[in-house]
Specification:
With 140 residues, this protein is of the alpha+beta class. It has a domain at 3-94: Gcn5-related N-acetyltransferase (GNAT) (Aminopeptidase, 3-Layer(aba) Sandwich). It has helices at 57-71, 86-94, 122-139, and strands at 3-7, 15-20, 23-31, 40-48, 76-79. The chain has a five-stranded mixed sheet with strand order 1-2-3-4-5, with helices on one face. It is elongated, with a radius of gyration of 24 Å.
C-alpha cells in the first residue's frame, strides 16, 4: 500500500489530500506561518477516515508534511493536538514531538461595557480628536 500527499486543488495552498493507492482517505493542512514566526512549519489539522486509521497513513502523512515544510525552509515543526486526543498525542510523540508550550482559551464574554462607559457622540469625538492632535504635535 502506498500513502502519498497530493495538493487538494488550485487555490488551496497548504491543503493536501492523504491518498492510499490513489484514493483520498483524509487530509492535512500545513502552513509555514504561525505564532512562532518564520522557520516553524505548522501542521494545523490532520484527519484520516475512521475506517483507515491505525494503519500508518497519518504517520506517513506527517513525515511527508515535514518534507514539504523543509522545502519551504522551515527548520522546526509544530502541531496543535486537541486536549484528550490520545491517538494524536501518541502519533506526534512517536515522531519525536514534545510539548513546549500550552495554549489556553476562553469563550468571548457577552457582558458588554460597564455602565460607567459610554460611546462619544460626534461633537465629543471632534473635540477629542482636535485636543489629541494638539497634544501630539506639541510632543514632537
Amino acid at each position: 500500500m502506498t500513502t502519498t500527499l497530493r495538493p487538494a486543488g488550485p487555490g488551496r495552498d497548504g491543503v493536501y489530500s492523504i491518498c492510499a493507492n490513489g484514493r483520498s482517505i483524509g487530509g492535512v493542512h500545513l502552513t509555514p506561518l504561525g505564532p512562532w514566526g518564520a522557520g516553524t512549519g505548522w501542521i494545523l489539522h490532520i484527519q484520516v477516515l475512521p475506517s483507515r486509521r491505525r494503519r500508518g497513513h497519518a504517520c506517513v502523512a506527517m513525515l511527508a508534511a515535514e518534507e514539504i515544510m523543509r522545502s519551504r525552509r522551515c527548520t522546526r515543526m509544530a502541531s496543535a493536538v486537541p486536549e484528550g486526543n490520545r491517538a494524536a498525542e501518541g502519533l506526534v510523540e512517536a515522531l519525536g514531538y514534545v510539548p513546549d508550550s500550552r495554549r489556553l482559551s476562553a469563550p468571548v464574554r457577552t457582558t458588554g461595557l460597564p455602565p460607567s462607559v459610554r460611546r462619544m457622540d460626534a461633537d465629543e469625538r471632534t473635540q477629542w480628536c482636535a485636543a489629541e492632535l494638539l497634544r501630539y504635535t506639541a510632543a514632537l
